[in-house]
Amino acid sequence: MPSTQFNFKERYRYQNGFASYHESEAVEGALPVGANSPQKPPLGLYAEKLSGTAFTAPRHKNQQSWLYRILPSCGHSNFEARESSTFNTNPENKPWEEIHFIPNQLRWDPFDLDETVDWVHSLHLVAGAGDPTMKTGVGYFIYAAGKDMAANEAFYSADGDFLIVPQHGVLDIQTELGRLVVRPNEICVIPRGIRYRVTLPDGPVRGYILELYEGHFELPELGPIGSNCLANARDFQAPVADFDEDTNNSWTILAKFAGHLYAAKQDHTPFDVVAWHGLYYPYKYDLGRFNTMGSVSYDHPDPSIYTVLTCQSASPGTAIADFVIFPPRWLVAEDTFRPPWYHRNTMSEFMGLIHGQYDAKTGGGFQPAGASLHNVMSGHGPDASTHEKASNAELAPHKVGEGSMAFMFESCLMIGVTDWGLKKCQKVQEDYNAESWEPLKPHFKLKPGQKIDNGLKSIANGTEGDKAQVPHYT
After folding, report:
1. Is 300 annotated as catalytic?
2. Sign of the C-alpha dihedral computed for residues 359, 363, 369 and 374 taken in this order
3. What is the pLDDT of residue 96?
4. What is the mean pLDDT of the chain?
């Protein structure tokens, strides 16, 4: 499919391009010409710089934007801790709630919708690694909300970039830089510090979030693939400037800071950016536009060919976080076991299912709105029923994943699970391993009369230096 056919129609206009230098003005002439911070910006606006990287970051990594707004964002009361007993997404700072690092394969039943909470209070940290205060690592969240955020309320995370993966329902997101509609089979990235408000125009919502505590997402290198394919830069969409003029009403600004919730008051809307330009902005992407690669001869390629976005570590080719999808695609490989092979990785894999059935897990336990975690060096692969089917299937060209979209948050980090993810959510499938892999049967069988001969019998009584011990004789 070249693009997804959404039931909920688009509401807004966008600018296209990933990591493109964009500029937008809601009122003609609001952007200054030839200067970023003139003595008197046009229309009586204030100039404010929003920095997503250090000023001196290399040019190809540097992400900054200039905002031209009615009042600067600094005009607010002191931030005060809010609901610290119930809102804490950094549980390693709470001695009574820990992150558990365990080697077991884990799988979760679908997480419940919760119509009693808004976006902010629906966030639950399931798993993660690192520390937002040190800008290292990742956090994996589930959100499930049924209410709009309050009319005069905005939220931001100082901890990292939010990669939002909707599974159910539609998000209408008003950000400082403009508005986005995000639907299942789309993703959205809201960078660290950008303020936004979430409303639910089509009822309750549920989905997944990867919060990236360090760096920013980029498109993966294509290498021998060439100049196009996978996620093409032109298909990413950024908002156009859209502002409210409100300097009379009280607003609450909610901040996620080191995993805790803080609140401040101000007497003007945060959504007063009349124009902006730069490289630091929210964006979205339709997963239906992903151009899938695959083998046209033999063997199942590594899942890295399905990478949409990546954040690389200091070691080239090793990611702090990869966002990988498994979209509808044709399989044509000859004499090949076509599902993913059994494997143990130095990388950890957290998987979710937006809709449909994942082709490597056909037993029914991996469901939309559920999840799984296969941690560092924990063995996994197709369940027993999938292995049996794939081992005996007729190897004609075959399309898999019709009506399905699974995804993976992959990381080089060892991922810990919170008390909420392991116990309080009550969604962990205790029989995951027993159902998936313990039923696998041995198929090893010698042919009649075949003997095992590895060359050792003839030198059973050999001595050091025996020439029979090729190639190690002296």
Report:
1. yes
2. negative
3. 47
4. 92
- Residue 403 and residue 355 in contact, taking contact as beta carbons nearer than 8 Å: yes
User: What does the domain layout of the chain look like in residue ranges?
Assistant: 290-436
Tokens of 188: 């959205």
Beta-bridge partner residues of 162: 190, 211
The hierarchical CATH code for the domain 290-436 is 2.60.120.10
Of 168, 216, 374, 387, which residue is the catalytic one? 374
Q: Is 216 a catalytic residue?
A: no
- Higher pLDDT, residue 84 or 303: 303
Please say if 211 is a catalytic residue. Answer: no
Number of other CB atoms surrounding residue 469 within 10 Å: 15
Known catalytic residue: 374? yes
- The torsion of the CA quartet 323, 326, 332, 333, rounded to 10 degrees, works out to 50
Phi-psi label, residue 17: left if phi above 0, alpha if psi -120 to 50, beta otherwise = left
**How far is the CA of 344 from the CAs of 103, 139, 295, 375, in angstroms?**
11, 22, 22, 9
| 380 assigned to active site | yes
- Token readout for 312 is 């690389």
Calpha distance 383→357 (Å, rounded): 13
Strand partners, 231: none
Active-site choice (121, 380, 387, 410): 380
Cβ(372)–Cβ(350) below 8 Å: yes
Q: Work out the average pLDDT over 367-382.
A: 95
At position 374, the amino acid (one-letter code) is H
**Threshold 0.85, pTM exceeds:** yes
Residue 258 sits at φ, ψ, to 5 deg, of 55, 35
- Nearest in space to 196 (alpha carbons), one of 375, 299, 73, 344: 73
